[in-house]
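Posted in: Protein Modeling Q&A

I'm a second-year student putting together a small comparison for a lab meeting, and my supervisor asked me to include a predicted structure for Small ribosomal subunit protein uS10. I've never done this before, so apologies if this is the wrong subforum. The sequence is pasted below exactly as I got it from our records. If anyone can share the C-alpha cell output, I'd also love a short note on what stands out.
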Amino acid sequence: MSEVVATKQKVGKEEETSSRIRIKIAAYDHKIIDQSVKTIMETVERSGAAVRGPVPLPTEIKRYTVNRSTFVHKNAREQYEMRIHKRLLDILEPNAKVIDALQHLNLPAGVDVEIKM
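Accepted answer (user: helix_wrangler)
Welcome! Here is the predicted structure, written out as C-alpha cells:
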C-alpha cells in the first residue's frame, strides 16, 4: 500500500513542475501596479496562455524617522514611510508567442518586473 501512495505523490509533483513563468511586480503606487497587472493579463490571454493570479503579496513598509531640528529639540521628529506594493502572476504553459509579447510590452515608469522561468 505504501508503494501506491508514493507513486501518487510523484505524479502530483510532476504535474506541479510543468512549464510556467512567474512574474513578480512591485511599485510604490497601487493604481499603477493594478493597471500594469491588467495590461499583462490581457496580453497573455490574447497570446493564448492561461494566467493564474494576480496574487497580492504583503505590502512592504519602510519607515524613516529624522530630527526636525539640527541642534536642540530632540523630541521634535518627522516620520516618513515608503510603501512597496507587490503582485504575483503565474503564466501556465507559455509558448513563444507569449514570451515575445511580454518582451515588447510597455509598462508605466516606476513598475519593477521580475520574471522567473
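A couple of things worth pointing out for your meeting: The first strand starts at residue 20 and ends at 27. Residues 1-16 have pLDDT under 50 and may be disordered.
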